[in-house]
């Protein structure tokens, strides 16, 4: 599966996946994403910094995306992380509903692991909503270990933070 840097031309397809993902999240009581996050501006910043990656099908269709960088939310600070820095963090990851259950989420996580190894990071970190069973299951199946829970402002339920030692 070809994973590459995202470009501004990918933004319409990325936002289409975001809208589809938000609808699915809200159907299951998950308010992780909404009309205020993530925004096109978030993705344009990721593109400008070279940290947004997309999985594109042979046909050119975008199947998924993930931002991989070293920016940790301040909410991560009090958690009992097991690995010393440096770490990379996975943000804003989604797979198009049309391509779910085809291994794209795992491929994006594997790609993040490769990027982290190339950057000599000692671990990967991420978080997801407690009401996101698919992402929680994927992270655990790929060797991520729960570290603790955090709350983001404006969100009713907590998020589970994960770490994978490399």
Automatic annotation (TrEMBL):
This is Acyl-coa n-acyltransferase. Keywords: Acyltransferase, Transferase. It comes from the Bacteria. InterPro entries: Acyl_CoA_acyltransferase, Bact_Acetyltransf, GNAT_dom. Residues 1-166 form the N-acetyltransferase domain. One of its GO terms (molecular function) is acyltransferase activity, transferring groups other than amino-acyl groups. The keyword Acyltransferase applies. Pfam families: Acetyltransf_1. PANTHER family: AMINOALKYLPHOSPHONATE N-ACETYLTRANSFERASE-RELATED-RELATED. PROSITE patterns: GNAT (PS51186). SUPFAM superfamilies: Acyl-CoA N-acyltransferases (Nat).
């Amino acid at each position: 599966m070809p994973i590459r840097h995202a470009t501004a031309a990918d933004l319409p397809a990325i936002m289409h996946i975001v809208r589809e993902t938000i609808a699915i999240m809200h159907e299951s009581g998950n308010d992780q994403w909404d009309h205020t996050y993530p925004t096109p501006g978030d993705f344009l910043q990721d593109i400008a910094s070279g940290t947004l990656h997309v999985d594109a099908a042979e046909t050119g269709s975008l199947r998924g995306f993930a931002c991989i960088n070293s920016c940790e939310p301040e909410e991560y600070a009090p958690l009992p992380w097991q690995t010393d820095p440096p770490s990379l963090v996975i943000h804003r990851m989604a797979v198009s509903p049309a391509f779910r259950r085809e291994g794209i989420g795992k491929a994006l996580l594997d790609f993040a692991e490769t990027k982290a190894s190339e950057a000599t990071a000692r671990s990967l970190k991420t978080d997801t909503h407690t009401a996101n069973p698919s992402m929680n299951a994927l992270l655990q199946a790929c060797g991520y270990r729960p570290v603790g829970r955090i709350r983001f402002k404006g969100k009713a339920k907590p998020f589970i933070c994960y770490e994978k030692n490399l």
